[in-house]
Amino acid sequence: MFRLSKRSEQNLQGVHPDLAAVVHKALSLTFVDFMVTEGVRTPERQRQLVKKGASQTLNSLHLPQADGYAHAVDLAAWVGEVRWDWPLYHKIADAMKMASSELGIPIEWGGDWSTLKDGPHFQLPRGYGA
Ligand SMILES: [Zn+2]
């Protein structure tokens, strides 16, 4: 059982409460500790990420949606240090999916995308709550 750091809690500010609830629940289920590295993004930061090739879309769910909340978070595996190995992200995704089904809140994992897989990325389905 892990706890979110202050920084992770801060990075959840502005994230849709349902997605934040899934993150909190997942932390009680996961075998791999993780931190929240990013939630809400400004349009300016999103433009910079696209320019750098770090993001593919200007229509990211990290941007505040119609309800005022970001609908995406990026998580980083924490094993005494941040690690990016895929097996860790599969374990985190297992916990996120279990939390999602326990809470009845649908989520999508960037690691399940067929192209440009994004292991740290989790989002509510586009149009969620609309
Ligand atoms: Zn992301």
Automatic annotation (TrEMBL):
SUPFAM superfamilies: Hedgehog/DD-peptidase (SSF55166)
Chain ranges passing through the membrane: none
Tree of life domain: Bacteria
Ranges for domain Peptidase M15C: 68-124
Record protein name field: Peptidase M15C domain-containing protein
Originating species: Oceanisphaera sediminis
